[in-house]
Amino acid sequence: MTRLPPLWMSRVVAGSGNIGNSEEIRKLLGEPIPRAADLNTLRPDIAAMFATGGVLQRIAKKLGLLTKRKHKKIIPAHNTIACVDDEETLYVGVEFLEKYGEDENLLAGILAHEWGHIISSLPKGVDWSHLTWDELYEMRRDEEAYADGFAGRALYLMGYKVESMMEFLKKLNRKRNPKLPSLKYHNTATRVAILQASFEAQERAFETAGKIFKAPKFINQS
Questions:
Q1: In terms of C-beta density within 10 A (0-12 exposed, 13-18 middle, 19 or more buried), how is residue 180 classed?
Q2: In the prediction, which pLDDT does 221 show?
Q3: What pLDDT score does 158 carry?
Q4: Which DSSP letter does residue 119 get?
Q5: Residue 17 burial class via C-beta count within 10 angstroms: exposed 0-12, middle 13-18, buried 19 and up
Q6: Which of 50, 47, 5, 57 is nearest to 27 (CA)?
Q7: Which of 56, 68, 80, 131 is positioned for an S-S bond with 34, CB 3.0–4.6 A?
Q8: pLDDT tens, 107-159?
Q9: Could you say which DSSP state residue 38 is in?
Q10: For the chain, which residues make up each domain, given as ranges?
Q11: What's the Cα-to-Cα distance from 217 to each of 39, 155, 208, 209, 220, rounded to whole Å?
Q12: Which of 7, 5, 184 is closest to 80 using CA atoms?
C-alpha cells in the first residue's frame, strides 16, 4: 500500500547529495519518495480534495482528533496510492484519487493506514543496517499489520465502513503477479482479516460500553 520506506529505515545520502545506488543503501532506503504533483495542474475536483475543508483534510482532522497527533501537510503525488515520510507528511496519489476519489470510505481507510505509521512506536532515526533482509521484511510486515489494525479501529470510530478498504486490497491482489509475492506485507487474506477483526473489535467495545452506561441506576436505600 505505501511506497515509502518504512519509518524505521534510515536515510542514506551520498556525498553529492544524491541518493546512492549501492545494494547496502537500497537495503536501507527501501522505495523512493513519490514525485510530488503540481496542484495547479490537477483537475479542479482533485485539487479541491487537498484544499482546506476538502475530503482529505476532513479525514485527517478526524484522525488527528482521535490520536491527538497532527500531520504536517498533505501533498499530491504521482505513481503511488499513499505514503508518509519521517516528517509526517502525507502523500496521496493523484491517479488513485482520479479513480477512487468518490469513495470516501476507501479514502478514510487509506489515510488511516498511513496514520498508523505516523503513530507507530518504532523509533525513528535508528540505523537498522545490521539486520538481515529477512529481519527487515519481518519488521516491515509487523509494522504494516499494525497500520492495518489501526485503520480498522479508526474507520469505526470515524463512522466509516471497512468493506471498501477490504475490497480494494482484494482488487490489488488480483492484479499482482502471483510469481512475485510481496515480502513487505502479509498476504491479502491476512490483511483483510486484520481490518475486519479490528473494526469489529472496536464495534463490540462500543456496544459493551453502551450497555454499561445505559444500565439502570441503583437507588441507595440505606
A1: exposed
A2: 42
A3: 96
A4: T
A5: exposed
A6: 5
A7: 80
A8: 999 999 999 988 886 766 666 667 777 777 788 888 889 999 999 999 999 99
A9: P
A10: 23-208
A11: 56, 32, 17, 15, 9
A12: 5
Q: In the numeric block, which cell numbers belong to residue 169?
A: 486490497
Length of the chain: 222
Q: Any idea which residue has 488480483 for its cell?
A: 174
Q: How far apart are CA 186 and CA 138, in angstroms?
A: 9
Comparing CA positions, the residue from 170, 174, 161 lying closest to residue 191 is: 170
pLDDT digits (tens, 9 = 90+) for 151-191: 999 999 999 999 999 999 999 887 765 555 566 777 889 99
Vertex 42: Cα angle to 37 and 47 (nearest 5): 95
Edge to edge, what strands does the sheet with 74-77 contain? 74-77, 90-93, 82-84
Please report, rounded to a whole number, the percentage of residues in the chain having pLDDT higher than 70.
Answer: 73
**All 3 cell numbers of residue 111?**
489515510
